[in-house]
Amino acid sequence: MTIVIPDTDPALLADLAAASRILAKRGVVDAFGHVSLRHPENPELYLMPKSQAPALATPGDIITYDLDSEPLNAGSRGSFIERFIHGEIYKLRPDINSIVHSHSPSVIPFGLTRTPMVGTFHTAAFLASGAPVFDIREKFGQTDMLVCDCAKGIALAETLADKHIALMRAHGSVACGKTLQLSVFRAVFTEVSARIQTAALLLSSGEPLDALEEEEGRLADAVNDAGSLRAWNLWRTEITMETGW
Amino acid sequence: MTIVIPDTDPALLADLAAASRILAKRGVVDAFGHVSLRHPENPELYLMPKSQAPALATPGDIITYDLDSEPLNAGSRGSFIERFIHGEIYKLRPDINSIVHSHSPSVIPFGLTRTPMVGTFHTAAFLASGAPVFDIREKFGQTDMLVCDCAKGIALAETLADKHIALMRAHGSVACGKTLQLSVFRAVFTEVSARIQTAALLLSSGEPLDALEEEEGRLADAVNDAGSLRAWNLWRTEITMETGW
Amino acid sequence: MTIVIPDTDPALLADLAAASRILAKRGVVDAFGHVSLRHPENPELYLMPKSQAPALATPGDIITYDLDSEPLNAGSRGSFIERFIHGEIYKLRPDINSIVHSHSPSVIPFGLTRTPMVGTFHTAAFLASGAPVFDIREKFGQTDMLVCDCAKGIALAETLADKHIALMRAHGSVACGKTLQLSVFRAVFTEVSARIQTAALLLSSGEPLDALEEEEGRLADAVNDAGSLRAWNLWRTEITMETGW
Amino acid sequence: MTIVIPDTDPALLADLAAASRILAKRGVVDAFGHVSLRHPENPELYLMPKSQAPALATPGDIITYDLDSEPLNAGSRGSFIERFIHGEIYKLRPDINSIVHSHSPSVIPFGLTRTPMVGTFHTAAFLASGAPVFDIREKFGQTDMLVCDCAKGIALAETLADKHIALMRAHGSVACGKTLQLSVFRAVFTEVSARIQTAALLLSSGEPLDALEEEEGRLADAVNDAGSLRAWNLWRTEITMETGW
Asked: What's the predicted TM-score (pTM) here?
């Protein structure tokens, strides 16, 4: 069976490359991590830059993948080993159209301990419904920690279930959204909220935090659809000023 | 009844837009937050940039509002949802002529716990009289956390009462002053002092901090009137070097 | 009695202005703080920039003071209120030729608690002999916290005694050295060491830190005479690249 | 006996100077610290920049040393006092071809306490096999803390034994690798992992961290051979954009 790769709006490719650079600029990714977008013309495909440090991404680096994470037009360009994270979540969650995978440093501690992440403020409201922790040991034993095939991607997607964020023990996290803007926004504010929660726990002397309640989180996260566009407008502008695209 | 919008000194509009950028540059605001100025010609009006990331504000973005936070000359420009914070504080507190609302990250933990903010050093002396916490749940139950109408603005203003700073649970804070320079100064040093207090609590092993006493705070804060001008001179210069205005 | 102000090497004035900017660039000072130099031609005088944010200092801003901190050639230029810190330490400590006063944020917590600063590594070896805390309340009761006259300067100098660093409760600190390079170096590494010690205390579960012993500190600090020149060479170069002087 | 100094590929000299600047840019070194490379043509020699702040290194600054850390072609260029760290590790560990010595601030606390470093995520997998602490007091009593001769270098190398990282009490650390890219990568992620572990310990309420197990560490570190090249590609590019080489 041959898959026809639909044409892609060049502005969208530029936005996806810009998203990689935004995440690098905001300290969410360093030399590692990736952001993808479900193909707007065919939900059985997704777009992601080639394997390299996200800060170097350009519009010409975007590869199209099927949902088994097979590259369809890579040519000589390499693919991220952990692309299966993206394909398997897109399969399980038709409501999700963009995914960020990162090792953002303030988030990792929450995957190393039993302290659950909470929504520390309305901008991080998407955390109020919980952020489950994926421990690759449970199904796969001793590994190199990488989500390097479909089976591991499926296990991660099943841990994510119906949430927006999943943590990965001793590894990092994934942030999901129905738009590119929203997944980037959530990846940034997961990192910010983790930093806030860590400080709050230092102040709390063991008492529970007055964080967002679940219903507050649901109501506040609805506003973030617009909020993510305001943030994107700033962050995207910064990339254009640096790159010209 | 028609309100005549008085002319505004263009230098003042530039200063207000610059204040937005100063707050972004100092890490007090990111894609969100806003700073306003009571109109110098008519105390029943206030000035605030249009709804956008503060780092992008320009002198042409300033809208005039009445104290019910109705925009008087917005044209096609959008208004911040939470502008009611500003209008209602201006109504209740004739001594306040400028307000900053932010989600500055080191401050949020103090709204999530029972640890009161203190004045950790003379530059943050305005905190020595206390920083009350506004919990929107108390009057309004489960909400999206936003101060999106006059009633919520009034409740926040009543929590602020006669203080310079109010924290907002799971949201952020407001910093007020009799001048633009002073509200910006207080927003910046509320963030700095929060960071200092968090570290001090880590060192204190549960003993009370040797922070500013209330009278020390009152005396030291009087000096900050001049101090805020020295800081402004630096911060405003940086914006001029970047923008040309 | 007329004091003849000796000529000053223009390169020295540039170095002192650069020291102000170095401290700003390294996060030791923000809009406040100052660095001075005993006059190389007359030990009864000292040099310090005019009152302004240190990041703005230029060689033309340097004022000459006598040791009572009276400005001798200020003209229309303003003087720092707290210049008495400098004059009184120079009087009491003939071995000190340069002083930095700052509110560097990681250091302030050590003036708010009973936790003494230690030398966390050899570059901060000057802390191994101790950093006493000056509490202005003890002699002067409720004040605006500022060292704004000779009496308060004397009290601070007496607390400093024979040390390199003194902390000031709810205010900041002073760092001293026999050269400009050494006082700047010590101000920078007091901040760095405070940050390291804070993290170490978090790890230590209440056990004492394996910090520098006093004799290790004495031996290691001797090496910092050369070390401060290596750091200066880097930091001074950065200022020249920005300012041309 | 005369040692013939083999020719060195100019691209390699540029890479070694760039490595110094990369470490400075990433906050691993400040005015101090050094990175060396075993000579690719003669394993009994190593290459290291002259004594200066690493951020200033240029390809023309590289000196060749024998394994007793005698400079062979220094001319008027000064040598780092602590070069014996490098020579003695190269002697004891033929598998190591590059070494970074730094005082990176988040790592020092682990040398001041009994808390062992762990591998907090797969990128820091090289820490999962442990990071022993070298206490110079044990063999040498009260010193200036510097590894300033062969005997001290040997003692440090023996503490390192077969690990990738050794901490130095009240001083800093060394990070080793079989390539320049890998030693730089390990120095950077030792600092990042230290910061993550410190936050995780704050969250953990005394329970052990769910860090990498030793076998996970071994498997994940194998992947870092490729990972270090991806990071290098980004970091090296940044230096070329700044320096032209």
From this structure: 0.98
